[in-house]
Amino acid sequence: MNNVILYHNILDDKLFNKIGYSSQPLNVSYRDGQHEIVELSAEKMEGQEKTYQLTDPKVNWDPDIHDLLIQKRIEIANPQFLFGKNALVAEDGIIGIAFGWYSRDSSLREVFKSGEITCSEDRPYTTEINIQIPSGKLRGKVTFEIFLYLIDNERNRYSIPGTVLGILEDFDVIFDGDSSSFPIVEVNEPSKPLWWVNCDFTDPLYDQFEQNNASIVLNRGHRLARKLKIEKGLGSSPLLLEILASGLQLIVEKAQLSGDWDQIVNGQSEPGSIGQAIYYFINTFGWDISSPERLARSIREDFDTRFK
Fold first, then answer.
1. In sequence order, which residues have a C-beta less than 8 Å from that of residue 250 and are 6 or more positions away?
2. Which of 55, 83, 244, 281 has a Cα at 20 to 30 A from 44?
């Protein structure tokens, strides 16, 4: 039997409620080109309160290409309760706040120091987390944490600086092969149509929602390509919206012809698969799959609402 001896207190539910922790919604963005900052929409997955998927209004974000910018403002209303005889550290101690992430899929972990708290804080403590994660690091499901850690606790010689004292907040974000982005590929082939759809998947329950299995192809070499206005984003291009709506409808309809449709609509697809993406679209955006014409209309009603 393993015995664990702790020489410091930890943040339990009673103390957590006492200090009054709160935070603003997660703000996630990326830099498209040299200057333009594009904000991503972080939406909670159906039935998973602490798991987010990201949507790019410009349909351009790729975690393997773009750095990710994260901002989040947090507040501790009563920081003084963290200090004292029965609190986390002694009155002369110092507590740090950090923001960290780890990904089992990429086997990477990173921690960013955000601030320090001392007993002299007699008013709400606020800080804004601002970090930039380089492209290529984030893959699959990534867990983010905001936590307290020990910097100094002079009266307790057993305390080790860097010890995690408690988690203030944690959440997951899905990055690869998910329903956070549309599978779009650009080509330059003047002799071919303005756009078309590739549906090369055979098993939507397992095949990943990525360009090798399903993609909407935009042909920049076509004489009408300038009318797509790709650089200005979906809200500025009714033609691009219509192409995406039509393309996604074709992908859904092919999946409906597979023998896995019942499992797809019941949420039994593998993470990151085409089936999971379709389930997300249906349940998050209200796509009506009862008939082809209702599917076509509901997708466009959804787009009209989200991409004004």
1. 197, 199
2. 244
